[in-house]
Every structure is written in C-alpha cells, then in structure tokens.
Amino acid sequence: MILWGSSNQYLDVGCGSGEITEDVSESLNIKTPYGTDVEVQTCPNFILVQNDKINLPDNSVDLITVYVTLHHFSNYDGMVREMARVSRNNGLLLIREHDSFNEHQVYLDMIHMIEARSGHG
After folding, report:
1. What would you report as the CA-atom Rg of the chain, rounded to the nearest whole angstrom?
2. According to CATH, what is the number of the domain 9-118?
3. Taking the CB of residue 80, how many other CB atoms lie within 10 A of it?
C-alpha cells in the first residue's frame, strides 16, 4: 500500500504492453493505475500522450514511473514539466534509464529494433 497519498493513483509513462504497470499496481496495491504512451497500447486505463500532454488533472498522481522511456521523448523539458504537473506535491517520480550514449549504443539500437519488430518495444 502506498502511504504517501490518499487517492493511491499511479501513472506509468511509456507503458507499452502494460506488464510493468500491472506488476507495480499489484505489488503496491494500487487502486487506480494509468498507463500512457505516444501510441495506442493495452495498459490499464490507457491515456494517449499527444503534444506532450497527459490528460490527467493537476496534482492527481501519487507515483509516476518512467522505465527506459525518457530517451524516446523528443521534448524532455515538456514531458518532465507535464509529469510534475500531474504529480501530487508529495508524489514520487521514479526514472530508470539506460545510458544510451556510450560504446554500446549500436547494441541498444539493435535491441530496440528487435523489440519493435516483435511488438514488445
């Protein structure tokens, strides 16, 4: 159970298939999970991100996760501002990103291509 918010709302930015969204929701007993992406996905309570806007009210989300998605944003500042807008004042923003600017870039690009073609990316 999340102890820092009263509504217990969770937003997974870049949810893809929704597997992480569902795992986090179940593990933390989330009442209202939302998934967002720039393409239509099968996440719980899916919200399509358009023009760097997340269709949720200000100060409405207790937990936001961004799992290996940040490098896909074309407008980092706009999306981070938008995540801050929907986050409650005492909410948590958890970002996990790989270092895509190193000697392993070619392998990461190859993995992204394979995932995209298989429908998992």
Report:
1. 15
2. 3.40.50.150
3. 16
Calpha distance 110→76 (Å, rounded): 23
Q: Which amino acid is at 3?
A: L
Integer Cα distance of 39 and 36 in angstroms: 9
Instruction: Annotate 38-70 with three-state secondary structure.
Output: CCCCCCCCEEECECCECCCCCCCEEEEEEECCH
Under a CB-based contact definition with an 8 Å cutoff, are residues 13 and 66 in contact?
A: yes
pLDDT of residue 103: 63
Which tens digits make up the pLDDT trace of 60-85? 999 998 888 877 777 888 888 999 99
Contact by Cβ (8 Å): 66, 14? yes
d(Cα 45, Cα 4) in Å, to the nearest integer? Answer: 22
